[in-house]
Write a structure and sequence with these properties.
Family: Belongs to the glycosyltransferase 26 family. TagA/TarA subfamily.
Number of strands: 8
Pathway: Cell wall biogenesis; teichoic acid biosynthesis
Helix content: 40-55%
GO molecular function: N-acetylglucosaminyldiphosphoundecaprenol N-acetyl-beta-D-mannosaminyltransferase activity
Enzyme class: transferase
Number of helices: 13
Radius of gyration: 18 Å
Function: Catalyzes the conversion of GlcNAc-PP-undecaprenol into ManNAc-GlcNAc-PP-undecaprenol, the first committed lipid intermediate in the de novo synthesis of teichoic acid.
Length: 239
Amino acid sequence: MKETILGVDVTDKNYKEISESIIYDINAGKQSFIVAVNPEKVLKAQKDEKLRQLLNQATYQIPDGIGIILASKIKKGNIRERVTGIDLLFKISQMAEQHQKSIFLYGAKPEVNELAKQNLLKYYPNLNIVGTMHGYEKDEQLIIDKINESKADILFVGLGSPRQENWIIENMKKLDVSIFQGVGGSYDVLSGKINRAPAIFRKFGLEWLYRLLVEPNRIKRQIKLPIFLIKVLMSKNES
């Protein structure tokens, strides 16, 4: 099931349910596209119809942000669990290891991409990573050929949003891949280039507060959360 928040669809599936659906999609030969949805993207989509359509075109729009959970509660919806992009990457990798599915890592700088691969294998030693490609390659046909030659089941794309989502939409039909996930800056975290918020912050959905404490100049972005919630409240009153 999905809920619509300010015109953007969001799935109410949790990690386990999405992982099970992904296994089904792979075995059925179905192509599926995962995109992370947060308040900032929803606000942008209100002004950018192309972005809104892109987000709604995805198979799974995961609720990546405490603001989405709060919005669902305001609307008396069923979304109760955050599904972050990087944690879903881990869950999918775990599932792929267990079910002998293969993965390709595309995006980021060459050294970041390689470190991300090495560290992902530390978590899941039997994970079948069949290929990698950094995000600075300009030859699109070379990228497509390398991915297809790898025969990967799952493709993680880390080109930044919305570039990665646009790339996936433009190339899905050219690729023999079942599952596409835009993973944003997850490779930077996987490689150790950027540290995640401590577990206590993540547990309570307060990564935004941690990032604000570490990077005070993010205040302009963080102020969008109350703006988003006010818009949700207003839309609820109008309906």
